Amino acid sequence: MISIIIPCYNAEAYLEECFKSIKAQTYKELEVIFIDDGSSDSSWALLEGIRQDNPEIAITLYRNKQNQGVSVARNIGIRAASGDYLTFVDADDHLAPQFLERLLQGKKRGDMAVVGIGGAGFGKGSAPFQGLITKERFVYEFWLTKHLFGSCNNKLYSRKLILRHDIFFDPSLKIMEDMFFNMLYCQYIDTIYVSEQKLYYYRRNETSVMHQKFSENNMTVIKTFHKLLALPFTKEEQKIIELHQVNSLLWLLRLLYKADDKEATKQYEEVILQELATANTSLFFKSGWQKGFSRYVTFLLYQLHPKCYKKVITTYYKFKKRR
Questions:
Q1: pLDDT tens by residue, 44-71
Q2: Which of 5, 46, 125, 237 is the most buried (most CB within 10 A)?
């Protein structure tokens, strides 16, 4: 059986579409675990209606009185699950009918199964591929291409392995928490089966942490990489993480300058600059082109003249707002 874990926060506009896609799955041995994470809209009432109207499906509901974050909600789902396998779905997304069936076929061939993601917010990725890959190639593809994605939503996991090794989401990480979860899981597996089919449909959410005003939540990306770099990766895998760390720190700096908030800049700018000073920028200078041409060019600009980099970023976004 597969347990589908769905955190919900103010998702009333999307819950019915999401559940309809679950009900339409070709694989029927499933249970659905909804966690309402302190919603202030009618999500809870909708969930109760979904459970009442669909007695043929095992549906479990949990409700947090206050919003505690997606990691806490997912962890509640993991502990409540009874299936052999777990997958995670966001309440504003939906699935192709073959989603679970294809994941299970892949899981029988590898220690993890992955399908593609489509939808708004996902541009053209790298050339898709299909087949059984090693953990080493998974780490490479995970961080350096756009086919596997960092999300936990397009993957199927072993519940037994998760519980045996105490693999849970870290509530203190507000950004890239699913990437850290995947890398933790990766420490205990050897092979991953990848399907090129896009069977998970993502909806860009403007209220997510990634799209909100710059805050302390954004800064947790620094902690994420500290924790990632403490994992027992091979030397080559470590380099890949270090490469992405520099890329993510520059992204964080760009977000800060884009916000054009004097108080936030005063509070966080020096912290980010110090992290960049200790990160492996020499590696990024040699191999950063793998993260994309525009990102590499902005890195070179930052290296040559940090103040000029700041001026270019702030001017660009001010101009963009006026258009």
A1: 999 999 999 999 999 999 999 999 999 9
A2: 5
